[in-house]
């Protein structure tokens, strides 16, 4: 068993934290213990075990010292960090937010030394590889960034269903729309630009995580939604419009990162996010002004 463990398990011990991040270090620890246990019959046949153990302990200490001396961040070993600008059009409030637990000198410029928990921003969960959520936030200046144009091209009742045809047109260069169902009403029908999402289930979309659909915008093509709900229910959707231009958006004026920093991968990062409700009554009021 010792040879297969060296051939198959040892490479995974190194690859896990490199490929999946430090959160998976416990997996490498488990595999290390397993490999050591499988190698015990080999170690048991060694003579002068005390000498060997002393040598390995000394080598381990030397490696720890070398690792400590080379632990500083550099261009080739950069420190990941994250920052987004979150603008809520309905509440007229804006926030800086991050996924980081410990702030560095770059994120402290915007979040300050005493940020607050970002619980309120995690009500509408954004997709990420590890289900990461915003950890910290602080108030930001409210910027007059133009939000999308929301049009209800169809709003009618047919039988026991309320049918909507909604067109969402971006008014700036954007990359992503995320639509959420606020009140958990069952969506009897959902089409995005005429396409029925694969494996669409109303109970999953509306009651588990509230997210209805994520639309990646190409060439600023509008998103047109066909939605049907029970006529007794009320449509109450929320839109998160995201653009990946935080560092060069004139409205946010964010300074570049240091050379030893890099954007945190696998999350919606370096983004300007605009949140806005999608409600027929609200849109009608805005159009009447």
Summarize this structure briefly.
The chain has six helices and 14 strands. It has helices at 2-20, 25-44, 49-69, 105-111, 202-207, 280-288; strands at 79-81, 84-88, 93-98, 116-117, 136-140, 149-158, 161-169, 176-181, 187-192, 211-216, 223-230, 237-243, 261-263, 271-278.
Structural description of this entry:
The strands form 3 sheets. This protein has an 8-stranded mixed beta sheet with strand order 4-5-3-2-14-12-8-10. A 4-stranded antiparallel beta sheet has the order 6-7-11-9. It has a two-stranded parallel sheet with strand order 1-13. It starts with a helix and ends with a helix. Helix 1 runs antiparallel to helix 2. It is built from 6 helices and 14 strands. It is 28% helix and 29% strand. It is of the alpha+beta class and 289 residues long. A hairpin with a 4-residue loop joins strand 2 and strand 3. It is elongated and about 85 Å long. The protein has 2 domains: 2-69, no CATH class; 80-289, no CATH class.
Please work out how many helical segments DSSP would assign.
6
Structural class: alpha+beta
Indicate the proportion of strand residues.
25-35%
Largest sheet: 8 strands, mixed
Share of helical residues = 25-40%
**Low-pLDDT regions:** 202-207, 283-289
Instruction: Determine the mean pLDDT.
Output: 88
The count of DSSP E runs of length 2 or more, i.e. the number of strands, is: 14
Oligomer: single chain
The run of helices and strands is: HHHEEEHEEEEEEHEEEEEH
Total domain count: 2
């Amino acid at each position: 068993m010792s040879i297969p463990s060296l051939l198959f398990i040892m490479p995974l011990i190194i690859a896990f934290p490199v490929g999946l991040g430090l959160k998976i270090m416990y997996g490498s620890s488990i595999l290390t213990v397993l490999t050591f246990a499988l190698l015990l019959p080999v170690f048991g046949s060694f003579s002068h075990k005390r000498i060997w153990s002393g040598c390995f302990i000394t080598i381990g200490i030397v490696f720890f010292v070398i690792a400590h001396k080379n632990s500083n961040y550099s261009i080739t070993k950069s420190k990941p960090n994250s920052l987004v600008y979150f603008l809520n059009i309905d509440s007229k409030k804006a926030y800086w937010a991050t996924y980081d637990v410990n702030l560095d000198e770059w994120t402290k410029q915007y979040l300050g030394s005493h940020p607050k928990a970002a619980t309120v921003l995690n009500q509408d969960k954004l997709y990420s590889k590890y289900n990461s959520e915003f950890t910290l936030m602080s108030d930001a200046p409210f910027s007059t960034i133009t939000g999308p144009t929301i049009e209800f091209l169809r709003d009618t009742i047919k039988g026991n269903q309320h049918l909507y045809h909604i067109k969402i047109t971006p008014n700036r260069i954007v990359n992503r729309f995320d639509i959420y169902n606020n009140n958990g009403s069952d969506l009897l029908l959902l089409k995005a630009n005429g396409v029925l999402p694969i494996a669409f289930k109303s109970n999953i979309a509306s009651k588990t995580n509230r997210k209805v659909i994520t639309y990646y915008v190409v060439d600023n093509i509008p998103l047109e939604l066909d939605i049907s709900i029970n006529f007794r229910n009320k449509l109450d959707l929320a839109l998160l419009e995201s653009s990946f231009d935080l560092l060069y958006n004139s409205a946010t004026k964010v300074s570049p990162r240091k050379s030893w920093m890099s954007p945190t991968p696998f999350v919606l990062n370096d983004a300007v996010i605009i949140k806005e409700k999608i409600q027929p009554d609200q849109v009608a009021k805005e159009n009447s002004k």
